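Long-time lurker, first post. I've been practising inverse folding by hand and with some scripts of my own, and I keep getting stuck on stretches where the C-alpha cells seem ambiguous. Below is the full C-alpha cell string for one chain I'm working on. Before anyone asks, I'm not after the true native sequence, just a reasonable design that respects the backbone. If someone could post their per-position residues I'd love to compare against what I wrote down in my notebook.
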C-alpha cells in the first residue's frame, strides 16, 4: 500500500460515519473558491458598505435573491418571491430649519451657521431651548486638585458652554494632573455633576489647542449617526416620553468663540489663562441669550429581508423548520471616501448561508425537517430585520424548531489582534468556535457538542453567559427568536482588530477557517434537521 493510500485508509477509519455517507456530497460542495467568489462581490467597494436604507443594501438583497433561486430555494410565498419588506422611519435633522442664535441686550443677533449635534437625542419633532449662557472653561470640578470651574457660578436653568479635555501644556499634555488627566478630561466625569445642577443644556466644543473645529473633522461617521436615526415603524405606536435631563450638544468651536467675544474676550486667550494658572475663568455672559432650535424631518424607508427554504423529506417532520440566519447589512462609508466593506461582519455569515444552501441541495436526500435561510437587514442599527420577521414570520412561528445564527465566521486570531489596543476582542484560534446559545435546549447543546467533536473543533463558551458584561447573547439577531422561546445557537469566530474598521476587507478573511466554519454549521443544521425526536425546549427564555 502506498503512503498516500495508508493516509486515506487512516482518514476513512477515523472519520465519523455520517461524513462519509449522507453528508459527503454536501460537505464536498463547500469550496473556498466559491466562498471567495461571493465574498468578493458582497464586500466590494461598489456596495458602499451595505448600510441599511442605502442603495448598496438593495443590490446585496437582489444578489442574494438571485443566488437563492439559483440554489433551488423555495420562497415562502411564490407570489411575493424571496423578499420580505418592512418599513423603517428615518428621522434626520432639517438643517434649513435648525440653528443657534445669540442675542445681546441691545437686540443684536448673531447666527451660528455651523452644524451642531444632539448627543442625548430627542423624541420631539421640534425642539427649542433658550436661556442665558455661562462659559465654564473645561467644565471640571475636582476636589483632589482643588480645581473647580463652577465655584461662585450658578448654572441652573442656564445654558452651559464647556471645552473638551482638561488644562494642558503647549504640547497637549497635562503633567500637573499626572495619571488622573485621562479620567479628568472625560465627559463621563464632567457631565454628571453639571447635569445635577439642572442647566437647560450643556454645549461642548473642541478647545483651540486641539486644532479641531467640529466632530465632523475627526468622526464624520459618528456625526452622521447623531444626525440620523431609524426606528421600526409600527402601527398604532404609543407616544414616547422625552429623555429627561439637560440636552447635551456638540457644537462647532466658532460658537464658543462668538460667545466669549460677546464678553470682550478671546477663547484662545481664556484657554491659555486657565492652562497657565489652573484657576477658573468661568463667567456668566451678561446680557447674552442663546436660542437653540432643532427641527426633525421624517422619511419612510422600505427595507428588504431575503428568505428561502428547502422542504424536508419526512411527511410529518417537514412541517418543522431549522432556520439558518445571518445579517447582510453593514455600516456604510466614513464620509471621506472610505468604505466599511464588512467582509467578516457579516458578509462571511451571509456567504456561508449561500454555501450551506447549496450543500443541502447537493445531498441525495434531505433530512426530515425543512431548512430555511433568512438574510436580515438592519442588524447594525437595532436588529430591526430579525425583529420584524419574528413578529411577522413568512411561515408560522411555531413551525420553527431551531435557529442557527452566523455572525462573523471568517477569521482566525492574528498577532495584530493580540497586540491591538482595542479592548474586548473575542477572536478565537484556528480550531475553535465561539458558541453562544442552547441555554433553552439541552438537546440542542448535545447536538452542538457532538458535531464539534465530529468536525474536530473546540467550542469556546466564554461568552455563553446571559449575564456576561459584554452581553453577546443579546447582541445579534438570534435574540429576537430566543425571546419567542425558539432555541438558538449563535456561531462566530469573534471580534478582531478590524471589527467595524475600514480594514475589514476580503483579503483579511482566512478562507481555510471560513470553509471549516461553513462546513461545521452545515453539519449542525443537518443533524438538527435530521433528529428523529422532538427538538425539546426545557428552559424557555420567557421563564428566565
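-- Answer (accepted) --
I ran through it position by position. Result:
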Amino acid at each position: 500500500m502506498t503512503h498516500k493510500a495508508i493516509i486515506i485508509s487512516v482518514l476513512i477509519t477515523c472519520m465519523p460515519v455520517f461524513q462519509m455517507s449522507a453528508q459527503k456530497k454536501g460537505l464536498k460542495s463547500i469550496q473556498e473558491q466559491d466562498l471567495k467568489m461571493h465574498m468578493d462581490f458582497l464586500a466590494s467597494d461598489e456596495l458602499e458598505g451595505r448600510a441599511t436604507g442605502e442603495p448598496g443594501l438593495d443590490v446585496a438583497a437582489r444578489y442574494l435573491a438571485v443566488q437563492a433561486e439559483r440554489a433551488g430555494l423555495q420562497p415562502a410565498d411564490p407570489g411575493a418571491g424571496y423578499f420580505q419588506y418592512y418599513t423603517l422611519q428615518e428621522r434626520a435633522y432639517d438643517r434649513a430649519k435648525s440653528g443657534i442664535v445669540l442675542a445681546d441686550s441691545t437686540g443684536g443677533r448673531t447666527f451660528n451657521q455651523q452644524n451642531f449635534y444632539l448627543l442625548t437625542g430627542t423624541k420631539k419633532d421640534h425642539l427649542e431651548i433658550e436661556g442665558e449662557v455661562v462659559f465654564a472653561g473645561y467644565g471640571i470640578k475636582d476636589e483632589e486638585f482643588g480645581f473647580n470651574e463652577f465655584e461662585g457660578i450658578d448654572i441652573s436653568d442656564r445654558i452651559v458652554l464647556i471645552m473638551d479635555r482638561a488644562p494642558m501644556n503647549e504640547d497637549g499634555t497635562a503633567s500637573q494632573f499626572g495619571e488622573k488627566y485621562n479620567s479628568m478630561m472625560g465627559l463621563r466625569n464632567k457631565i454628571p455633576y453639571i447635569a445635577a445642577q439642572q442647566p437647560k443644556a450643556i454645549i461642548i466644543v473642541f478647545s483651540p489647542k486641539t486644532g479641531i473645529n467640529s466632530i465632523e473633522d475627526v468622526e464624520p461617521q459618528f456625526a452622521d449617526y447623531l444626525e440620523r436615526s431609524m426606528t421600526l415603524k409600527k402601527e398604532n405606536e404609543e407616544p414616547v416620553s422625552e429623555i429627561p435631563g439637560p440636552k447635551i450638544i456638540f457644537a462647532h468651536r466658532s460658537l464658543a468663540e462668538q460667545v466669549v467675544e460677546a464678553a470682550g474676550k478671546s477663547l484662545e486667550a481664556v484657554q491659555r489663562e486657565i492652562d497657565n494658572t489652573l484657576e477658573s475663568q468661568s463667567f456668566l455672559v451678561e446680557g447674552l441669550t442663546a436660542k437653540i432650535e432643532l427641527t426633525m424631518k421624517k422619511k419612510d424607508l422600505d427595507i428588504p429581508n431575503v428568505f428561502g427554504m428547502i422542504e424536508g423529506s419526512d411527511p410529518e417532520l417537514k412541517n418543522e423548520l431549522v432556520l439558518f440566519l445571518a445579517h447582510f447589512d453593514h455600516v456604510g462609508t466614513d464620509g471621506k471616501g472610505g468604505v466599511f466593506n464588512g467582509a467578516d461582519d457579516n458578509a462571511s455569515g451571509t456567504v456561508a448561508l449561500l454555501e450551506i444552501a447549496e450543500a443541502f441541495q447537493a445531498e441525495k436526500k434531505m433530512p426530515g425537517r425543512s431548512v430555511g435561510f433568512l438574510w436580515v437587514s438592519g442588524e447594525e442599527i437595532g436588529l430591526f430585520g430579525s425583529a420584524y420577521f419574528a413578529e411577522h414570520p413568512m411561515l408560522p412561528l411555531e413551525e420553527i424548531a431551531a435557529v442557527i445564527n452566523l455572525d462573523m465566521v471568517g477569521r482566525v486570531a492574528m498577532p495584530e489582534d493580540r497586540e491591538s489596543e482595542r479592548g474586548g476582542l473575542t477572536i478565537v484560534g484556528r480550531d475553535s468556535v465561539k458558541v453562544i446559545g442552547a441555554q433553552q435546549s439541552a438537546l440542542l447543546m448535545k447536538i452542538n457538542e457532538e458535531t464539534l467533536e465530529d468536525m474536530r473543533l473546540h467550542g469556546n463558551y466564554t461568552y455563553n453567559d446571559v449575564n456576561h458584561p459584554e452581553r453577546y447573547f443579546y447582541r445579534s439577531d438570534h435574540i429576537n427568536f430566543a425571546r419567542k422561546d425558539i432555541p438558538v445557537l449563535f456561531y462566530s469566530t469573534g471580534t478582531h482588530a478590524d471589527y467595524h474598521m475600514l480594514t475589514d476587507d476580503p483579503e483579511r478573511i482566512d478562507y481555510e477557517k471560513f470553509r471549516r466554519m461553513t462546513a461545521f454549521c452545515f453539519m449542525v443544521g443537518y443533524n438538527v434537521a435530521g433528529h428523529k425526536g422532538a427538538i425539546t425546549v426545557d428552559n424557555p427564555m420567557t421563564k428566565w
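A couple of notes from the structure itself: The chain has two domains: 40-74+311-543, 93-298. Residues 1-20 have pLDDT under 50 and may be disordered. Happy to go over any region you disagree with.
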